[in-house]
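Case study 2.
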Amino acid sequence: MSAHFIRIIAAVGITALLNACVGAFVFSGKDYDQKSYIGTSVGEIGWAGKTKADLLRLWGAPKRTYSKDGKEYWVYNESIAWRGIIPTFVVIPIPLVLPVGHNETTVELNGEVISTFWNERAVEKWFGCSLGSDISPPAGCHFGE
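Prediction:
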């Protein structure tokens, strides 16, 4: 086989593996995931603790506290909060996202016991059409999924 023919086969093969798409990923809003037992690091679920003392021992002091309706709330910074859009043209994503603060974990305390806690996270949505592989998002058109 000639070198030219091998290059053409390689180019076609690589192109077939690419996920061609036009659209955008949008990172915005907030999503909350409720849990009741804390893990060993901020925002992590686990069986490491269920009391205020466990919370102080494992996660340390909160960034702020407040009370509402007879319950106490402790708020922790969890991770950097990114918000923005990633437009995608063919196979080239263009990240236009910025750090806008921190995602937070809020713990609700009822006396000395953790009632529940939840994590604030960005909601990622895909708007657009894609062809090719079944890598996320799958082939087809999607609007806000």
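The beta strands are 20-35, 64-68, 71-90, 92-93, 96-110, 113-131, 140-143.
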